[in-house]
Amino acid sequence: MMSDDKPYILGTDNEEIKRLELQHKIWLSEAKNGWFSANFSKNNTILDLGSGPGTCSKELAKIVGTGGKIISVDKSSHYIQYIENNLQKKFPQIIPICTSFEDLNLKPDSIDHMFCRWSLAWVQNPNKIISKIKNYLKIGGKMVFHEYYDWSTHQIFPFKENIDKCIKTALKSFKESDSEIDVGAFIPEILDSFAVKIINNRLMPKLASPNTNEWKWPTTFYKSYFPRLIEMGYLTRSEVKDAFSELEQIEKLHFARLACPLMIEIIAEKN
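User: That's the sequence. What structure does it adopt?
Assistant: Structure tokens below.
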């Protein structure tokens, strides 16, 4: 078993699992739309690439039933153990594998479909990963990607200087990493280079109001990530403190709005 929890920018502790569960709740309907469009169905073998603690694996297990398989892949031993301890008894069709995407080794033509959400944005070599997945897919198998398309669309209204600076600094930290946060904008070109047919793509915007789950999705991210930007030398403690004070003020305004980072869905088929 390969374990590598350190690279997760928000960690893999129980608080992060709660945040991921909230995130999943917000985006589940979009995921189900993608699965339906790709014809995920009973008895399929589906790869859940970057499964985290199994929020999507559980839903996919309901689709494939006991005659199918969900291969849940994540490099976090904590997440894989969470799946083993909390999901496998009810959903024995879930097969968790603790490994990196690069080290994943499945048989060629062994899976019916693949789902990947917020996973390729954090890897150095999405081209290599997509090439491997294509090899694992059966002819006619679908790949469903849900990734960031343009993180710079993430804004809060009304404008406040410090919260705006923190959001833009978060994006700066992503852009200065060795991965591409807006990988969704580049996936179609990667797929084309492997002669994989794109059968559908759509943008998935979300505009949130205070006191909604959609609002909580990015603001819980702020609470986890902005302090890390202090540790990384991007922000000062006073800047982050002032940003959270501004956020409290904004959340009291019934007309406040938060534009979430723009997402894209891409569905492709192996010919």
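The longest helix spans residues 14-37.
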